[in-house]
């Protein structure tokens, strides 16, 4: 029994008399009427048959499906199951037309002339500051030093002898001071060329110098 209301209390029986007994029952667990899921009933929810609203809605649709079908047939709105389903289809056709245009040649731009590469910079020897090239000496000064044209300069011992003569003339003040910068520039060029032409540079060349004469 689902009735949970206790019976009304009457007067207490007199001592020595037999009293009537009443039994109360309450459903604790019930399966869902649609999916069969066990439902734990609350004390005042003994009438619950479905575990959720979706199960209740599905059961309602099943119970009323036959009645709704009969009503639709009587009203003439029911559809014959053998009747094909009508559909509305929208179709689009895309047409692509490729037109070939004549090839227009690009204008020829004038090319910028490429400058010639710069000559490589010769490495500067260690311990020697770069000396700007000396301007060409005057013919009178070159004749005073004992040199003729560039093609007539001697080599080897002849060059050593002439350099020593120049040193002697500088020592005796025979060469004017105005020509000293030109001589210094020429000496710097000689040292630079000697450093480039000698393996090991001026350091190796200095170790090969003869002892000074007294």
Automatic annotation (TrEMBL):
It comes from the Bacteria. Residues 1-14, 104-122 have a biased composition (Pro residues). Residues 1-25, 104-124 are annotated as: Disordered. This is Endogenous inhibitor of DNA gyrase (YacG/DUF329 family). It comes from Streptomonospora nanhaiensis.
